[in-house]
Amino acid sequence: MKFESLKEGKAAQIMHVGPFSEEGPTIEKLHYYIEESGGQRIGKHHEIYLSDIRRAAPEKWKTIIRQPIA
User: Are 15 and 60 in contact, with CB atoms under 8 Å apart?
Assistant: First the structure.
């Protein structure tokens, strides 16, 4: 584990509900939205985990996927 500083700026984000292994289509949807809106992705996306995976069933896990944009 390591700590990183992220310089927050303009970003697009989407909520994914379900296991981490099924995030792919949600990320593709986010990328499509950015492109259709005239945005440009900058760097890597990051994730904000809202659910305690020790207590919630995988199909109920909530994750915010945030992509920095220009």
Answer: no
Dihedral angle computed from the Cα positions of residues 18, 28, 46 and 36, in that order, rounded to the nearest 10 degrees? -130
Count of alpha carbons within 13 angstroms of residue 40, beta-carbon side: 2
Note the pLDDT tens digit of each residue in 7-21.
779 999 999 999 999
43-46, long-range: CB < 8 A, 24+ apart: 43/68, 46/6
The pTM of the full predicted model, rounded to 2 decimals, is 0.86
CATH number of 11-68: 3.20.80.10
How far apart are alpha carbons 18 and 51 in whole angstroms?
10
- Residues 42-59: pLDDT tens digits? 999 999 999 999 999 999
All residues at 6 or more sequence positions from 58 whose CB lies less than 8 Å from its CB, including other chains: 18, 19
